[in-house]
Design brief:
The structure holds 2 protein chains of 2 kinds.
Chain A lengths: L2 H5 L9 H11 L10 H10 L22 E5 L7 H10 L5 E5 H6 L20 E3 L6 H17 L2 H4 L1
Parallel strand pairs in A: 1-2, 2-3
Helix pairs in contact in A: 2-6, 3-6
Chain B lengths: L20 H4 L4 E5 L11 E7 L2 E8 L7 H6 L3 H9 L6 H16 L5 H29 L3 H22 L8 E2 L2 E2 L6 H24 L3 H7 L7 H7 L4 H4 L7 H4 L20 H24 L18 H4 L3 H12 L7 E9 L2 E9 L7 E5 L1 H7 L1 H5 L4 H11 L3 H5 L1
Antiparallel strand pairs in B: 1-2, 2-3, 4-5, 6-7, 7-8
Helix pairs in contact in B: 3-4, 4-5, 5-6, 5-12, 5-17, 6-7, 7-12, 12-17
Classes of the chains: A mainly alpha, B mainly alpha.
Chain lengths: 160, 412
């Protein structure tokens, strides 16, 4: 089903370079192994057997920012952590994306106080926000899917 | 992009009181570990002083997850402040609510129905098993046993499903409330918990098959991170980390709360005080927790699950439409909250990590004047430098896993 029916056994697929690159970027997107708080536990659960993010090519969590394409900010970011987070983001190689996982990373969540950064978009540009405290693993996968859609549509020029 | 969030520069001069003279002379190396590191279990930062690969000194730097929970609780009424307590130790959310509610109940002197007490115990023990499963998975991952992680998280889902069944949330349940629990457990609860009781002993055997006699695991854990009972007590270490060194200090036995005295269970201890001893203690604790759950479930009394004191406990939803008095109570409780007599109180529960205590100071109003959490992870973490001296970095990773810290609990 799909493209091979239309093309019979020609063995040739025509597409644009942009969509091929976009497709390739989504199929092996390596998230950074970077947990902050409660959401990190749900992120681990999303990696484990029940939810299994490797179905989407997302199973390889890299502890090194140099090797990762995606930063999942999983949890509340304190004022002390903020410079570290920015530093890690700066160390990631382009093209790079950020998911703000959970209410705290998105907007501060229940913690409207002196210690917590009110939304991680104060520090780094965020592509996808996921609501929930903490979001279920399904919600994280949903967010990742939304990011994949976004990445597939990107022009090469946009991310260079 | 210019950002106000630049990493602060630290000179050797600023930290000279923390390191030895050899580091200042350039004989030893200072190495930063964390806060983003796969095996520091969150955002722990360690400053390591190394002689080759041997640890001369290990200085924990905490506060990267400081959330201001204690301060935030002061600005909320007693009912609403409980939501904050979930997010302290996020692997033991039920236990945090439990400690908080015990403290509030002590102050306002409200009696909790026996059914609610038993439900609390069942959920707290389920949460203990779930927390130990996360510990088992991650600490085994630290010593390079990957498959245990996948098994442990598979089983954890079963327990989270039960928490979701009763409260509607997987992790941040806020199910235990001052004066009882939020609502009665659904009819499926009994079957779901019995399913856990039937399947888990075999599953724990499976984990033991993978680790207990595994020569690679033994090499990484036996005799590593030793701590004597005196050292542990001096640091204020509690929980399984203390029991791995000998003392059988468990608040569920020593200061029973919520009817723990009726249940027959043992407090597992070991004497070696190393990483392996702490592993054995936690594995046995999971089995003991299952024993407690079974007993509590078998004699789960019928009756109400919330106190009838309408000044403390909001009325059931069904009454609000028919009774003016209930409507007023509901409105008053969720806007003003209830006044708590002046005074201070301390209540503690045995969390999966140790003694989790909450101290509340009240000035007579509807909001706490001061809330302080005595969190077990913080004290357990402070003992880390003593355990690691003279060992290798690879051992440090195993020791951090065995102490079972949760950074939300440390930094709050």
């Amino acid at each position: 089903m799909g493209v091979e029916e239309k093309l019979a056994d020609m063995g040739v697929v025509t597409t644009t370079l942009e969509s091929a690159v976009g497709w390739g970027r989504t199929r092996a997107m390596w998230p950074m192994l970077f947990g902050l708080a409660c959401c990190a536990i749900e992120m681990m659960a999303a990696q484990a057997a029940d939810y299994d993010m490797s179905r989407f090519g997302m199973e390889l969590m890299r502890p090194s920012p140099r090797q990762s394409d995606l930063m999942i900010v999983a949890g509340r970011v304190s004022r002390k952590m903020a410079p570290v987070l920015r530093h890690l983001y700066d160390q990631m190689a382009e093209p790079k994306w950020v998911i703000a996982m959970g209410d705290c990373a998105s907007c501060g969540g229940v913690f409207n106080n002196y210690a917590v950064v009110q939304g991680v978009d104060e520090i780094v540009p965020v592509d996808i926000y996921i609501s929930g405290c903490p979001p279920r693993p399904e919600a994280l996968i949903g967010g990742v899917m939304a990011l994949h859609e976004k990445v597939e549509k990107l022009k090469i020029r946009d991310v260079l | 992009m210019a950002t106000p969030y630049a990493l602060p520069e630290v000179t050797l001069d600023e930290i000279k009181h923390l390191v030895s003279q050899r580091a200042l002379d350039g004989e030893t190396v200072l190495l930063n570990m964390g806060p983003q590191h796969p095996s520091t279990h969150g955002v722990l930062r360690l400053l390591l002083e190394l002689d080759g690969e041997t640890i001369v000194n290990c200085i924990p730097d905490v506060g990267f997850l400081h959330t201001g929970i204690e301060k935030n609780m002061e600005s909320k009424t007693y009912l609403k402040a409980e939501v904050m307590s979930d997010r302290l130790d996020y692997l033991n959310t039920v236990g945090n609510n439990f400690a908080y509610c015990l403290a509030v109940e002590k102050m306002i002197d409200v009696d909790v129905p026996p059914r609610a007490q038993a439900i609390r115990v069942i959920l707290a023990e389920l949460q203990r098993v779930a927390s130990h499963l996360v510990w088992l998975g991650t600490s085994a991952l630290d010593v390079a046993a990957m498959s245990v992680f996948l098994y442990a998280f598979r089983e954890r889902e079963i327990i989270l499903d039960i928490l979701e069944l009763v409260s509607g949330q997987r992790m941040m349940t806020t199910y235990i409330r001052p004066g009882g629990v939020w609502r009665d457990v659904p009819v499926e609860f009994d079957d779901a918990v019995r399913n856990v009781l039937n399947t888990f002993p075999k599953r724990i055997d499976e984990y033991e098959d993978l680790l207990t006699k595994n020569p690679l695991f033994l090499d990484r854990t036996l005799g590593i991170g030793k701590m004597t009972a005196e050292e542990a007590l001096q640091w204020g270490v509690t929980g399984s980390t203390l029991r791995g060194s000998g003392p059988d200090w468990d608040l569920r036995k020593k200061r029973p709360y919520s009817g723990y005295e009726q249940y027959d269970f043992e407090v597992p201890t070991a004497t070696e005080g190393d990483v392996y001893a702490r592993y054995l203690v936690r594995i046995r604790e999971m089995r003991e927790s299952l024993k407690i759950i079974e007993q509590a479930l078998n004699k789960l009394p019928l009756g109400p699950v919330r106190s009838n004191d309408r000044k403390i406990v909001p009325p059931p939803r069904s009454e609000i439409g028919t009774s003016m008095e209930s409507l007023i109570h509901h409105f008053k409780l969720w806007t003003e909250g209830f006044d708590v007599p002046k005074g201070s109180v301390y209540a503690a529960v045995e969390s999966p990590r140790g003694e989790l205590g909450v101290f509340i100071e009240s000035d007579g109003g509807p909001k706490p004047y001061r809330v302080h959490w005595r969190t077990p992870s913080y004290n357990n973490l402070e003992a880390l430098p003593d355990m690691t001296k003279g060992l290798l970095i690879a051992d440090l990773v195993a020791i951090i896993g065995s102490v079972d810290i949760v950074l939300g609990d440390v930094d709050r």
